[in-house]
Amino acid sequence: MNLLKTMPDEELVVLYAEGKNAAFDVLLNRYKSCIYSYIYFIVRNKDLTEDIFQETFVKAIMTIKQGRYTENGKFKAWITRIAHNLIIDYFRQERSENTVSNDEVEVDLFNNIKLCDGTIEDRLVYHQVLADIKRLVQYLPENQREVLEMRYYQDLSFKEIADITGVSINTALGRMRYAILNMRRMVAENQMELSLT
User: In the chain, which stretches have pLDDT less than 70?
Assistant: First the structure.
């Protein structure tokens, strides 16, 4: 098992396809935390996250066992793209049933008093600016919002974003550029002040 832990993803995929189940256990342990976090960040529901997480790895297992895995050198991006597509499928189905609500859970990742220094006024301004930015992000087109959230909230590279969303790096960069331009336009139109100083 220790030898397996040092192997690259692609070798583990091959071993698993050949019937060595422990190889997939290593892949699962290697990526379960980041895949779970990615799903939870988007859906913000623990039960739904667990369902999509399990479905993601079941789909990966089926694809590998059927010999249809072709993403050489890109296992992490591939497994993340499976999760991403399952999330999209879920929300499309929910939207068509008119039961999805964005108001169920409001999570502000930056609103943690333990992480703040300075005066109460500084904290109030800081939180107001973050709330304003968060509100602006919600008005962006979905594809721009998605790239912005992946880049700034999940700290993904543009290559990873491109792989996950199935677009070119230039398209991902373009979406980010337009997201920033749109946010600047909204700030100007609404005469907002987003400075912390």
Answer: 1, 96-127, 129, 192-197
